[in-house]
Amino acid sequence: MNTQPNSDSKHESSPQKSRVETLLELFGVTLRLGLTSFGGPIAHIGYFHHEYVRRRKWLDERSYADLVALCQVLPGPTSSQVGIGIGAIRGGLPGAVIAWIGFTLPSALALILFALLLQEFDIAGTGLIHALKIVAVAIVAHAVLGMGRNLTPDRNRATIALLTATAILMWQTAFMQVILIVLAGFVGVFLYKNTKMPEFSTLNLHIHRSVAIGCLILFGGLLVFLPVVRQLTAYQSLAVFDTFFRAGSLVFGGGHVVLPLLEREVVPVGWVSKEMFLAGYGAAQAVPGPLFTFAAYLGAIINGWPGATVATIGIFLPAFLLVIGILPFWNALRSYPNVQGALMGVNAAVVGLLLAALYDPIWTSSINKPVDFALAAVLFGMLEYWKLPSWVVVITGAAGGSLIFTLGL
Fold first, then answer.
1. CA 282, CA 280: separation in Å to the nearest integer?
2. What is the 3-state secondary structure (H, E, C) of 133-170?
């Protein structure tokens, strides 16, 4: 595969523009998307398509669809990975970094400020935290339903999801989640080895293979050696970075699925209380941009601005390394039926993990009275049937929960 850029490609920067001008343009576009892209990863992909394909014509329809397909099968935040890939196409490695910063910065800052506000003032006394926990019930229930329709459409994959949910509720550890994901991949290979997969088009992207291999080596090295170094030192920042790097490395299915893994990592060790965890998760639904910036909130709760910076870089770094590392090899990899079968099994397990998280910790710590369930049902209806944006649901839930608290219901 040719890994050198084609000088006459229509996706290259205009020769009249300097490299700095190109990167500044990229930052402006991605920052605006970071400020306005509400609605989760599927909506983000729609915003990207309108901006990058239809309006600016930075890449064509086929290249965009293939890039989205790649990012959907990698662990980590799909929409952020698509943005990183487009940034790499437009401006190389600096473009990938700038695209990530622009899209991530607004929601990360908003959630950091929310975390600091929670710690500075007694917001818990207003009933807001409990209200946001109820919001989380509706949001995750909606995610389970939608992902279940798409990722478990047959009996085999539904069975994988149910067995995964049962196992993780019985043995609630982060290590068990990894085991279940790996097992689901092997089961998927066995069940779907004779399934005819759809044909795909060639992804025409230009990344030097030496750079890609370096990113993959760095990803693997950090994943293996960070836990070892963590055990040999007593630095909390290193422990935080290791926790969030593993979360970003092992979570398939996007932002909602990272919830159970992070909860098992930060709540039992006392870094974040269960109440603060769920309050932040509810607040994360009200901001634009990637849901993985929930890590910025958790990091701020743990150690203020330094903790937020470490956690945010930690959870997004795997996505960056994997996108840049896999792009040149993606066309060959996805031609193997076993790879596609494994991904079908893993995606079904993801639904099971999210179903288990819906029950514990979300439902068990949020729905205490009939009025709590009633509010959660209304919020779920707003998402599922009225198709209202998530920020409207969050505001409604916060107002409704505060009213319930004030009236003593």
1. 5
2. HHHHHHHHHHHHHHHHHHHCCCHHHHHHHHHHHHHHHH
Q: What is the model's pTM?
A: 0.73
Give residues with Cβ within 8 angstroms of 143, minimum separation 6. Answer: 256, 354
Residue 16, classified by CB atoms within 10 Å of its CB into exposed (0-12), middle (13-18) or buried (19+), is: exposed
Contact between 147 and 253 (Cβ < 8 Å): yes
Find the length of the chain.
409
Among the listed residues 213, 391, 367, the one whose alpha carbon sits nearest the alpha carbon of residue 278: 367
pLDDT digits (tens, 9 = 90+) for 125-134: 567 778 878 8
DSSP three-state, residue 192: coil
Q: State both tokens at 395.
A: 């505001």
Concatenated DSSP letters of 231-279: HH---HHHHHHHHHHHHHHH--SSGGGHHHHHHHHHTTTTSS-HHHHHH
Measure the CA–CA gap between 129 and 401, rounded to whole angstroms: 9
- pLDDT, tens only, 21-43: 889 999 999 998 898 776 667 66
Give the contacts of 169 (CB within 8 A, at least 6 positions apart): 356, 359, 360
